[in-house]
Amino acid sequence: xxxxxxSKLPAVVAADLKQETDMFTPFSGERILLWLSGSxxxxxxxxxxxxxxxxxxxxxxxRKTMRLTTLKRRSDEGDTFTYLSMPLPEPLIFLxxxxxxxxxxxxxxxxxxxxxxxxxxxVVDETSEMKTAFRQRFGASLLPRVSLIAPEYHFR
Length: 156
Description:
mainly beta, 156 residues
């Protein structure tokens, strides 16, 4: 099981912006689709995980090193869904050992510009908050190992 969170923040601090009357809030009512694959190119089909922005997710994944290769925003437009690509600066990797029952990959914060493109990202370790929520949901018998997601070049 992989445990983590995706959040988005504006790349420009609100105090630096001029006063606007437009109340448009990008990403409201949207979800994020995370595409994971094995660390090797021949590791089969990618896995798509649909999560809510800013909420902790819990997904079953194979017990092997995984790559986060693609992000897509899913917006609801009437009766259809629209998927908009959010290219990552580089694929991200998290390590899953064969004996892991759950791993925590962190809170992946995306900083987006006015065109909704990722200009930076950071991984925030919120282990203490996650452990409390995890215990309430699954009990004290299982706690995830911390395996923060990191850029692929850290593992070369």
